[in-house]
What does this fold into?
Amino acid sequence: MQFKTPYVAKIVYPSLVWDMPSNENKIYLTFDDGPHPDITFSVVKLLEKYNAKATFFCVGENVQKYPDTFEFVKNQGHSVGNHSFNHLNGWKTDNDDYYLNIEKADEIISSKLFRPPYGRISPGQIKHLKNDYKIIMWSALSYDFDARVSKEECLNFSIKNSRPGSIIVFHDSEKSKEKMFYSCEGFLDYFSQKGVEFASLNENLFFKDVK
Ligand SMILES: [Zn+2]
It folds into this structure.
């Protein structure tokens, strides 16, 4: 579960990224919790159909299991980000363990973009991590992870809550796949027809000198 787009948190945590500039007519699709050999592969194929680029926040242990899928995502021109090695909840994890887990993921993901699993990260953890990573949150959730929400509702939420500059979250996971594919394709369809471009979050947008 992830908490709803926290309006107050945007004001309290200005160092986190919640959305991108709205003047470029771009929407930023993000996919969390992969890579998965079938699901992620099909997501990349779907994106290709719409000439869309996206950002995949990967879980380190999944990258370790499916290195070829991870390479495939990058080779297709998408960005990747760190989503910790074991999908840890920052609120329930000792700080040192949390940082080590992110570092371990960095060894195989090698990205300066980090998204905290469940959106749960403490102010102290933000302070510690923000020098090394750009912490990417979101403007809109698709709710593809939520068992109470139908796929049609996922699509409606996604469209209703997105506009140019939005960062939207989908999940390339077993649990979410049915709703994700339905709502993501509808989303791509809807905004393509409006002439919106789908762009990836590139490290260069946030860091001048990327290793
Ligand atoms: Zn996640």
